[in-house]
Write a structure and sequence with these properties.
Number of domains: 2
CATH class of the largest domain: Alpha Beta
Strand order of the largest sheet: 1-7-6-4-5
CATH superfamily of the largest domain: Thiolase/Chalcone synthase
Structural class: alpha/beta
Order of helices and strands: EEHHEHEHEHEHEEEHEHEHHHEE
Number of strands: 13
Distance between the termini: 18 Å
CATH architecture of the largest domain: 3-Layer(aba) Sandwich
Helix content: 25-40%
Radius of gyration: 19 Å
Bound molecules: acetyl coenzyme *A
Length: about 325
């Protein structure tokens, strides 16, 4: 059975840079609060009319070019997002249309910050079994159109940014390389702790004027609880990925944790006993781009030459659901 290799990667973030200071014109906050509590100094926001699938298209073009491939060479799209362009159809089809590859299957994955790892797990299974040979795996988000930019929403609105990252995956017969294992989990008992309540088919109407007045169109989060679970589940899932391959934290060349809060990453690093050079963070520049965060960081690392053939790469994420997981990859 072949293994799954990363053929190429790419990312795209919108041009508009929103620095922490900008938020002070809308709400009671400060650059100091945001930086010290989260590590974030700036994030990107889309222009009017720019969608998640537009961001994904730019990132995909780059990855295709780097792979020396045409869109027509793809045989499947897996599109991970918590901020779909529309309620339905899924966003993968809008990307497929822009890429001009009708008929290939498009699967939308809705697992929030763990989306890219859920998507990788599916892609890996399909590639190993030979069902598909060239999968475009996408993580793309537009958060900025759903932010409560008043003091009421300050705990969430300062955290998130827009952006897309992609990977093109395919089979390799090199036994020393490729995805070693993926590990994905969920616990729905905590679903409402990080939650977007409306609009939803659970209510009739899906959103009312009263809901809008109450700000129910905005996500809400019990930050401390989420923080607590994230900083235990992420190191736990990294350990699991290592143990199931007979590896230890010392073997890690690069750990890319989902970028939710720099303090969570620091906690993960400490609990695993990793050196600074074994871990990558870019939340400072992009905020939390949810399903986009791992592939954006991965592409930055690839372009910076931080991964060489055979290096051990570990990916880990935690997010709304709760969902969490990890993956171990020989680059
Ligand atoms: N500016 C200024 N003050 C603020 C802001 C802000 N932007 N946001 C909140 N505060 C205030 C709060 O209102 C609170 O005030 P109070 O004490 O008067 O009530 C105070 O700051 C402290 O708030 P805490 O919640 O204690 O702040 P904390 O140190 O926990 O940091 C944070 C909050 C950054 C949200 C943190 O809890 C966190 O990162 N949580 C986890 C996020 C995460 O991992 N999410 C998962 C992935 S996201 C996904 O899946 C979509």
């Amino acid at each position: 059975m072949p293994r799954t290799e990363f053929i190429s990667t790419g990312f795209y973030v919108p041009e508009r840079v929103v620095r922490n200071e900008e938020f002070t014109q809308w709400m009671d906050t400060s650059d100091e609060w945001i930086r010290t509590r989260t590590g974030i100094t700036e994030r990107r926001w889309v222009a009017d009319g720019q969608t998640g699938s537009d961001l994904a298209y730019q990132a995909s073009q780059l990855a295709l070019e780097r792979a020396g491939m045409k869109a027509a060479d793809l045989d499947c799209i897996i599109y991970c997002t918590l901020s779909p362009d529309y309620f339905f159809p899924g966003t993968g089809v809008f990307l497929q249309r822009q890429l001009g590859v009708p008929e290939i299957p498009c699967l939308d994955v809705r697992n929030q910050c763990t989306g890219f790892l859920y998507g990788l797990s599916i892609a890996d299974a399909w590639i190993r079994t030979g069902q598909y040979k060239r999968i475009l795996l996408v993580g793309s988000e537009v958060h900025s159109t759903g932010m409560d930019l008043t003091t009421r929403g300050r705990d969430l609105s300062v955290l998130f940014g827009d952006g897309a990252g992609v990977a093109i995956l395919g089979p390799t017969t090199d036994e020393k390389r490729g995805v070693l294992s993926t590990h994905i989990y969920a616990d729905g008992r905590y679903a409402e702790l990080l939650f977007s309540e409306s609009p939803a088919s659970a209510h009739n109407p899906r959103i009312s004027h009263a809901d809008l007045d109450a700000g129910k169109q905005y996500a809400h989060m019990q930050g401390k609880e989420v923080f607590k679970h994230a900083s235990t589940r992420m190191p736990q899932s990294v350990k699991l990925a290592l143990e199931s391959n007979g590896l230890t934290p010392q073997d890690i060349k690069l750990l890319i944790p989902h970028q939710a809060n720099l303090r969570i990453s620091e906690m993960v690093q400490k609990l695993l006993g990793l050196r600074d050079d074994q871990l990558y963070n870019n939340i400072q520049r992009y905020g939390n781009t949810t399903a986009g965060s791992i592939p954006i960081a991965l592409d930055e690392c690839v372009q910076a030459g931080r991964l060489q053939r055979g290096d051990l790469l570990v990916l880990a994420a935690f997010g709304s659901g709760f969902t969490w997981g990890s993956a171990a990859v020989r680059w």
